[in-house]
Amino acid sequence: QKVDLGGEATVATINHSLALLQRLQELLQNGNVSDATLRVRTAGSDEVKVFHAHQLLLSLQSEVFESLLHNQSTLTLHEAPDSAALFEKFIRYLYCGEISILLHQAIPLHRLASKYRISSLQKGVAEYMKNHLAGESSQGHVVGWYHYAVKIGDEALQESCLQFLAWNLSAVMASTEWASVSVELLLLLLERSDLVLQSELELYTAVEMGLPPPARAVVEKMLRSVRYPMISPSHLFHLQKQSPVMVKHYRAVQDLLFQAFQFHSASPIHFAKYFDVNCSMFLPRNYLSASWGSQWVINNPARDDRSTSFQTQLGPSNHDTAKRVTWNVLFSPRWLPVSLRPVYSDSVSGAIQSIRIEDGRPRLVITPAMTSSDFAGVSFQKTILVGVRQQGKVFIKHAYSFHQSTDELADFLIHADLQKRTSEYLIDNSLHLHIIIKPVYHSLIKVKK
Ligand SMILES: *[C@@H]1O[C@H](CO)[C@@H](O)[C@H](O)[C@H]1NC(C)=O
Ligand SMILES: *[C@@H]1O[C@H](CO)[C@@H](O)[C@H](O)[C@H]1NC(C)=O
Ligand SMILES: *[C@@H]1O[C@H](CO)[C@@H](O)[C@H](O)[C@H]1NC(C)=O
Ligand SMILES: *[C@@H]1O[C@H](CO)[C@@H](O)[C@H](O)[C@H]1NC(C)=O
Ligand SMILES: *[C@@H]1O[C@H](CO)[C@@H](O)[C@H](O)[C@H]1NC(C)=O
């Protein structure tokens, strides 16, 4: 006897998974057939929260609960106040696998997930943190997240936080968060050449203001990380005489200040002849002030080629600051490298074979408007900062560094999707660029070719 199975077409799925999740949550809410009681004590208070839970569900999610529940059905758990406040959400996650989270809840929630070894939740919260560095919070949260990431040894999160802080340093230095920066974090930031900020002087001021009273050796290390040659001699003189921290620790940085004054008083080429200097002191960071570059907002960037020009100082040495260099910039939204250009075929009398416009990619070229003998011994490294809007705030999405043209890079705006109005690189349909020109004196910085 043949049974007609009706073919695959009649197979249907009855899917009540949502209703099941709903019932599991009710189980927790009403405490029906509970066989485990969790008494959550808040550290430093008499408060105790009681949850009627189920061994099966707790053990399923957490081996820590499994072993705790092995010989007892009532557990007393001690939690810090911020974790205790989230405990109900946390337990609910164990029953239904879903949780909503706010910026200030990330650390206490991650702490709970780590304590009870819920690795899916640990990963989820770490991922949330990486994606919400630019989230809106009144006192800032990235510094706190960085310190937490160090404590738990999450290197990827540390790196994301550092990158965020480096590129958004001006904003962070202006916020109340700056006061909570640890000495270790400050030293790590001071080492970086990719800090985005108005000027080196701004950095000095922030270091001075944000300085906790650490050991003398630490203050001196910090002061020695400031790139004094990038500060104008008049400002240096002012610091030397007026800054209380400088006055107090003058002996520790005397040699650097002296070197910076010498750097300003001779041509850099001449200077290098007499001094064997080779250090980051002479490398500019990403300064936003006008002598180093210019902002460029390109409306409708996908439409056609655009150009602009602006002026910068020849170099940070006082010998060069008054000399201006004019730069021409060309932006092409769909530039094709020669190998991909349309081929003009003789046989079809000049007809264009398959132009593959979609192969074009954004390109930006920066050239000096004139050549000058002053440029000898100086090369100009260019950095383009791309601003994006996230959660209503503008912040730096990418920094691209190159010598003359973004052809040198494989990834310039590669994921930008400028054609799409919804591209996350566009703010009100405009591309927000900031171009920085960094003069590098070859004779001073013998960088590897
Ligand atoms: C069942 O429904 C839920 C929610 O509607 C859905 O997320 C899930 O993918 C469905 N499962 C199957 C096997 O279709
Ligand atoms: C759980 O308990 C509540 C109140 O005690 C009761 O109304 C409800 O029907 C119970 N649910 C189940 C699934 O037993
Ligand atoms: C359960 O076992 C642990 C060690 O295995 C022990 O420390 C604890 O006191 C036991 N609890 C009860 C209620 O027996
Ligand atoms: C300059 O310093 C770098 C790293 O500190 C080093 O690798 C390089 O060899 C030095 N160059 C000279 C010429 O001293
Ligand atoms: C990041 O930096 C940009 C400009 O540098 C600033 O407008 C923005 O507010 C910063 N974001 C945060 C979260 O500090």
From TrEMBL:
InterPro entries: BACK, BTB-POZ/Galectin-3-binding, BTB/POZ_dom, SKP1/BTB/POZ_sf, TRAF_BTBD17. It holds the Pfam family TRAF_BTBD17. Residues 34-103 form the BTB domain. It comes from the Eukaryota. This is BTB domain containing 17. The gene is BTBD17.
